[in-house]
Design the sequence.
C-alpha cells in the first residue's frame, strides 16, 4: 500500500488551506450591538461613539455593513481604547423602543454621541471607509484651542462666536467641564483657553469664562454660574452658540429639513446685515414663544435663487420673508411691515391655525373679507407654490425613508 506516502501531501494541503484562510480572512471588527440593557452604559463611557441604526431588510443598510465594519477596524488601530471611540449598531426591528427614543426616521442613520449625549448633527457624508475614518479623526481633535498670548484675542474672526476660558490649570475640574462643553458645541462656537500665569490678568476672582458674540462692537458676556456644574454652563453656552435665527446652507439643508419643523426664512443679500439684524430682533421680540414649533432661518439670496424664483421673486426683491410648510410656500406680504407689533407673529399663527392653507384653497376667511367681496372669494384665492426646501430632505437614493407623510400645514 502506498497510502502512507500520500499522507504528507494531505497534511501539506491542509496546512496550506489554513495559511490561506488566515491571510485572507479580514480582522474581526469590534462593533458593539446595543440593546436596552447596555446602551446607556456603553455610550456614557465613550468619549465618541458612532452608532449605526439599521434594518436588515433595508438595501442601504446592507450596503453599509461591510464599510462600517472596516471603518471600525481602521479607527481601532489608531484609537484602541474603547473609552475613546466606540462603533456600535442598533437593529431597529429588534429594538424599536431604542429607534423611537432617538427618533429614527430613515435607514441607515449614523448618529454621533459624546459622553452619552446625542449630537444634533449626524454623519451624512460619503459612505466609504476613508470618509468615515476621517470623520472620527476630526471628532478626536482637541475642541479647545490654546491661547499663547492674550494679544491673539485682538485678532479673532469676529464673524464667529467665541467662548474663551481663563483657567489656573488644565488639570482642574473647571477646565474638564469646559472641555466637555466644547466637545459638544464645537460645531457652533470657537472655544479657546488660556492657562496659568498667562490667564491671571483675566482671573480676578478665580477661573473665568466669557462669550464674544459676532460683531466688532458687540460687548463680551461673562458666565456667572458655577464652572464645575456641567448642566449650567452647557445651557449658557448653548444659548450663546446656537442662535435663534440660523443660516441655512446646502450643507445643512438636509439636517434642518429632517427636524420636521416648518421654515420661517428670510432671504437677504449677503452684505445686507442691517435687514438680517432687524429680522433677528423681531423674531426674538415677537416669536420667542414659537421656538420649537418652527425653524427661524436666513438664506443668501444669490445661493438660493431657485426657491426665490419659486415664489416669483429674484435677488433684486430681497429682503423677502416666507414660510415653507414642506407642502407650500407662503410669502410675508411686505418686509417693511416686519416691525409692526404682532405682524410677524400673526403670520406664523396663521400657519399653525391652518388659515394660510384655507386661503390657498378657498380665498380669504370671511372675517377678512370686506363687504361686497363675499361673492368673489374664488377669484381672489391665493395660489402659493409647492415647497422648495422639501427637496433638500434625505433622498430615497441614499435612505429607506420611514413615515414620509407630513401633516398639512
Sequence:
Amino acid at each position: 500500500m502506498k497510502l502512507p506516502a500520500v499522507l504528507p501531501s494531505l497534511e501539506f494541503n491542509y496546512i496550506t488551506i489554513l495559511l490561506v484562510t488566515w491571510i485572507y480572512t479580514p480582522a474581526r471588527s469590534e462593533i458593539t450591538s446595543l440593546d436596552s440593557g447596555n446602551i446607556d452604559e456603553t455610550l456614557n463611557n465613550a468619549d465618541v461613539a458612532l452608532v449605526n441604526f439599521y434594518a436588515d431588510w433595508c438595501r442601504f443598510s446592507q450596503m453599509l455593513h461591510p464599510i462600517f465594519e472596516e471603518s471600525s477596524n481602521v479607527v481601532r488601530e489608531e484609537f484602541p481604547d474603547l473609552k475613546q471611540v466606540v462603533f456600535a449598531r442598533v437593529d431597529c426591528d429588534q429594538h424599536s423602543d431604542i429607534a423611537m427614543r432617538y427618533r429614527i426616521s430613515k435607514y441607515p442613520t449614523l448618529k454621533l454621541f459624546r459622553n452619552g449625549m446625542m449630537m444634533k448633527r449626524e454623519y451624512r457624508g460619503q459612505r466609504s471607509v476613508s470618509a468615515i475614518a476621517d470623520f472620527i479623526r476630526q471628532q478626536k481633535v482637541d475642541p479647545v484651542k490654546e491661547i499663547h498670548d492674550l494679544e491673539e484675542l485682538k485678532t479673532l474672526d469676529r464673524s464667529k462666536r467665541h467662548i474663551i476660558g481663563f483657567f489656573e490649570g488644565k488639570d482642574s475640574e473647571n477646565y474638564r467641564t469646559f472641555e466637555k462643553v466644547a466637545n459638544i458645541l464645537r460645531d457652533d462656537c470657537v472655544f479657546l483657553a488660556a492657562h496659568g500665569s498667562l490667564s491671571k490678568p483675566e482671573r480676578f476672582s478665580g477661573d473665568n469664562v466669557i462669550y464674544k458674540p459676532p460683531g466688532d462692537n458687540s460687548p463680551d458676556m461673562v458666565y456667572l454660574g458655577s464652572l464645575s456644574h456641567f448642566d449650567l454652563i452647557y445651557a449658557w453656552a448653548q444659548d450663546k452658540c446656537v442662535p435663534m435665527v440660523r443660516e441655512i446652507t446646502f450643507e445643512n439643508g438636509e439636517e434642518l429639513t429632517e427636524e420636521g419643523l416648518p421654515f420661517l426664512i428670510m432671504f437677504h443679500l449677503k452684505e445686507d446685515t442691517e435687514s438680517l439684524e432687524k429680522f433677528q430682533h423681531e423674531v426674538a421680540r415677537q416669536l420667542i414663544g414659537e421656538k420649537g414649533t418652527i425653524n427661524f432661518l436666513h438664506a443668501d439670496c444669490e445661493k438660493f435663487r431657485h426657491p426665490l424664483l419659486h415664489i416669483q421673486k429674484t435677488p433684486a426683491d430681497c429682503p423677502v420673508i416666507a414660510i415653507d410648510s414642506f407642502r407650500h410656500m407662503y410669502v410675508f406680504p411686505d418686509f417693511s411691515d416686519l416691525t409692526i407689533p404682532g405682524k410677524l407673529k400673526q403670520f406664523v399663527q396663521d400657519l399653525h391655525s391652518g388659515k394660510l392653507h384655507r386661503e390657498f384653497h378657498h380665498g380669504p376667511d370671511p372675517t377678512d373679507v370686506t363687504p361686497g367681496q363675499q361673492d368673489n372669494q374664488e377669484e381672489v384665492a391665493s395660489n402659493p407654490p409647492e415647497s422648495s426646501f422639501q427637496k433638500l430632505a434625505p433622498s430615497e437614493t441614499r435612505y429607506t425613508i420611514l413615515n414620509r407623510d407630513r401633516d398639512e400645514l
In short: The first strand starts at residue 31 and ends at 33.
